[in-house]
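Memo to structure team: turn this sequence into structure tokens by end of day. - J.P.
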Amino acid sequence: MFKILIADDHAIVREGIKKILSEFSDIKVVNEAKTGKETIEKVRKEKLDLIILDISLPDRNGLDVLKQIKELKPNLPVLILSIHPEENYAIRTLKAGASGYLTKDKTPHELIKAVKKIFKGGKYITPSLAEKLAYELSRKNEKPLHENLSDREYQVLCMIASGKTIKKIAEELCLSEKTISTYRMRILEKMKMKNNAELIHYAIKHGLIK
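Reply from structure team:
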């Protein structure tokens, strides 16, 4: 029996995933979590075979939660489920140890395929993501500017580009406004830009925000 934890702050999403997976007698959803903190607590306490993790949790970014899970239990597979398109986070999450990345607009059949492949010890990558990875490997010195950012800097860039204030970003990431301002300055410096308007223009042009 494969034991799964679903970490998503939307009850309707958790119920939907449970219903999709209930068709299989060898898969059991043993627990649910609504926050990053709750997810980590349950990873510490329970024996699990897979975590289905939303990248946008109310208290912490899923990428941070993924990294902590991998520190605690390196061999525990994590399937990222996200509203964000693959180009935003997929490659970063795979590099951080995720076993797959699936956007929430995919079909139930796609979710089942992903779960089954991961249980067989593989990684689940969609054809479109496979193309992106191949392109990534083929490039030499042509990396887009945002790929020079750390994961946290990239996260702050996306939040600034979506119109959030320094105060709001600080609240959501549980950091000080001073720390967020420091991240902003580093982002501007690394990307050779002068202000938020240039960052927003860049993010739209490269499809980092919808």
